[in-house]
Amino acid sequence: MLRLLGTIEYENAFLIIGHVQKGQAVCQNFSKFGRYEITRGCLPWLVREEDLVTAANLAQKKTSLLTSFPDVRNVRLFRGWWALTTALQQFYAGDRIHGFVRALEALIYPAIGKTEKQFVHRCSLFAAPSAGKNAARQALEEAYKMRCDVEHVHLWDRSLTQYPLSDREDIAYWRTRQMESLACLAYAKIFAASSLHQHFQTDAALDQFWGKPEDEVRTAVGCVCDITKLKVVKAYDSWGRAVFSEWPTGWHENLKRRNEGRAGDTFHAVGFTA
Predict the structure, then answer these.
(1) Which terminus of the chain is more solvent-facing, meaning fewer CB atoms within 10 Å of its CB: N or C?
(2) DSSP H or E run through 269
(3) Dist. CA 77–CA 178, nearest whole Å
(4) Residue 250, phi-psi category: left (phi > 0), alpha (psi -120 to 50), beta (remainder)
């Protein structure tokens, strides 16, 4: 769940499963944790204690939601969740954007023959404020076309011919980061907001929810991630992250503020947000 909050990066991680019995921690299983990759052009993010608490709460809410379904295999939400977690572990950006778009498709329940149109329209309702709707729709449309090209084993930037050839790869990474942030935060919002759970219980509930007027959907979901604020990156360091000169104004100061506080408040690992 921590991965939904930011793009963490690490050398090795381990998974400990257990419980507390009579005040003592009991470890039942210790294993190596799967690796989550980054998308080229990502920005730095510091993981703090509050982020770990948020992630733990999200995990509890997801488990609670999971147990409310008689057969989770038939629940579209959790098939989308599997697509998202699988995409986050992919190394190649083309495979990542393919999974991110699929994860979003699981949430918006598009009608057969109207997938692209409804993907762009429905995702735009929670991908940016109303004022940024046009920019969000352009990003969503380009990301969807990229996903289709990857699906059919074309070059992942084949649909970006409106951009100069020298810029297409940077644009493709940009669209991937936008879909990554949108998908991660959308699932985090759905898990966290109990008021939304009823809309994702069944396909019929999803169909009814997305059939509501736009203003009702916007009010219910809110802007989970303003993808128009994520900007294109043109310079990368040797690990694929955005170089310092590409960081948004005030980003460095924001990291410094996150790193301030009482001793021991910061979890000493650095992640990178999409």
Answers:
(1) N
(2) strand 266-273
(3) 20
(4) left
